[in-house]
Protein 1
Amino acid sequence: MGLHDLGVSMRPHLQERIDAVDAEGYDAILLGYALCGRGTEGLRAGKTQLVLPRAHDCIGLLMGSRQDYLEYFNAHPGTYFRSPGWIEFQIPGQTLEPVYAFGNDKVGERRSLEDLIAQYGEENGRYLFEEFRSFRRNYSGLTYISSGVEGEDDFRSQARAEAEKEGWTFDEVKGSLTLMERLVNGDWDAADFLVVPPGSTVRGALGDSIVEAI
């Protein structure tokens, strides 16, 4: 999740880890990521094949298929999604938006109002916080993806409270771990998973395939 916050900048971190285990004699390296804002595009398989699900982002993974996600998305435009993981690792008062960088200084995602004020001063800190939250104006509803984990009643309550605070409608859908289970069990049919052969690279693709190997 920490690497996901970096957006496309997570690619070199993932590649470094892939390269580090490439010579260990594994049958495959599994990536628990989707295309994720093209953060996995450009990853290269060395001697070991890479495997990742065909999905645009974590919502498709959590719902169990990109088809279920697309069907829900088309029927519920303007929806913001929450899951137990996103809620559990969220810092109170933080923003949840893309990372912005001023030189080598990253600001944005998971930065609280207090943190921004401390670093940039009262006026600039509040301005940045509001700018980072401006993306929320495009949403009208919040949907909680239930996954049956322990403590879910509390996570659900937090998601509902967030929707009420924003003036959004609230909905809940039953998630599925099917894709993650199939990933770790080696059930990699081409319809739902991309297997990247040694020497090939991940690339985003148009259409239903989402990712391809070149």
Note: The chain is about 35% helix and 20% strand.
Protein 2
Amino acid sequence: MSKVIEQLEREQLREDVPRFKAGDTVRVHFQVIEGQRRRIQVYEGIVIKRQGSGARETFTVRKNSFGVGVERTFPLHSPKIEKLEVTRIGDVNRAKLYYLRGRVGKKARVREKQQS
């Protein structure tokens, strides 16, 4: 890639991104624009994947909403993300947790990493 594009992408990277991986439970404060109004929507769930690198990096969060599994993909360095906080650190052995899509209820839980 050209040096101009690399420099532009480096300027768009966020500095306040916490360390998280697949299996962690995160709370994403996302800015939603409805007409002329702006509001903050909080989306909390388990990270099932992270992909890409640099300014194009994305992560997908899955949650159960009224018995229905809902997934949403966020660009990691988006200016619409107000705050990103990790609530629980999961203990998993996979980078992509697609197997959670077929599970419901208690079977869809991810065990929490023990703090030592």
Note: The mean pLDDT is 88.
Protein 3
Amino acid sequence: MRLGPLVIHANYLINLASEQRMLQTRSIQAFHDEIVRAMALGADFLVVHPGARGEATTEQAISTIVESVKQASKRAPMGGLRILIENTAGMGTAVGARLEEVGEILAGLRNLPVGACLDTAHLFAAGYDIKSEGGLASTIGQIDGAIGLENVPVIHANDSKIPLGGRVDRHEHIGKGKIGAEAFARILRHPRFGTTAPEGVTGRAFVAETPIDDPGDDRRNVAMLWELAGLKEHAPEAEKGFSMLTAALQRKMLIQRKTEKRKVNAGTQRRTKKKVRTKKGGAKKSSAKKKRG
């Protein structure tokens, strides 16, 4: 049985919107390499962030993004691969926080096999209220108007550590963040976000990019998505201690946590010693004042 679709993500350092010619040239080459690798892997979708505009206007940046994607896709036969522009949370000068911006990029690339990948945490942080029933309906209408839901074959399903409109990209475990389990159940079961025609898109994929704080978090988040979608009986078991992380990555995370813990403990000890010295110093000054009196 074939597992799919295969969705891969381009390097986060790529900035297709850069106004700096050298960085733009390097980003175009890097994205071209990503396309070639995606084709070699037989991927169905290649997701990429639009980039940051710097001092340029949004209009200028969108034009640069369109030109960058066109240049990167030259001499790279796409076959069945489709490039997906991902919406952003709106941090700094990132392009793509507004659905209209993503729509304009796609319109400029109409002659290429492109579409959009929408991230739920990014939508929420950018100010789209997908938490409430009315807000979700309104957001779906805006997606349809700016992009077209038929052009969204992939959805990154992530909860958010950031409140509505916070414009910061911080993902959270499904149901544990500001969006919440109830809202995810509504999103996952909505016919317009479904995976079957005519209201949904056949083969649409939901991909989790949630944190891994403990071994097994990745599996538990996937199982939670299945449960909230009303498909618990089909969900993979979230075995205790199971993780999709390699043993090497687990060791690296363990070392990192121990290092962070030592730093926190060292900082606490320094603050405690400082307080003790301050108290002792205060007591001596007080005694000296009494003697002079």
Note: The longest helix spans residues 247-292.
Protein 4
Amino acid sequence: MDNVIVTGGSRGIGLAIAQKLARDGYRVIVVARQTSDALAAAVAKAAAAGGGAIELACFDLSDIDAIPAFVRDLRHRVGPIYGLINNAGIGPEGLLATMPNEQIERVLRLNVHAPILLTKYVVRGMMSEGRGRVINLSSIIASTGYNALSVYGATKAAMVGFTKSLSREVGRLGITVNAIAPGFIDTEMTGGLDDKDRGRIAGRSALRRLASVDDVANMAAFLIGETGRNISGVVMTVDAGSTA
């Protein structure tokens, strides 16, 4: 059973990805600071269904100095890591001119520094194995921009550049590196919006609806599996056509 790490998998997109990959027969290691009721239910459901599995590895990714030891211990416990999905991230709203420096540093640390370092230590094992999949979660905001999300947008643009260059570094060793750029996602990114605002956002998309967490999970499964073996260095947009 191939091992796949999913960061930020206790809720939302990360949890949906973990559930989809478990159904597809992978052993999913969810990296999160703590569990959640939804994650606990997903772990139990996967165990009852058989085939794949979901387990929690508690870790705070903002503790970047501890990442090397965390990866080493995880590999010792579960064996080779086949896939890494860098999903964890934060996106606090705020104008750059008034955002506290400490908050800017926190966003950069969790959204850019942590996934790059985590990938560094995980991909070493993939290079030894001669196979592997890395998927970085970006956002359509990386290319479209959005008011009061300039720092968040910068971090998601950074992950696109990271994806493209890393794909060239490790491609000859049988490792693919791709990014997924979700748009506004139904029930997660739009949870605080009223019906009028949700309808306005959906109306801007070609399909006149919002994408869901399951749409993103299906794309991740496509890239992780044999279906994605010749796809690398690209950004797959999942936004119901809002950037068409």
Note: The first helix runs from residue 12 to 23.
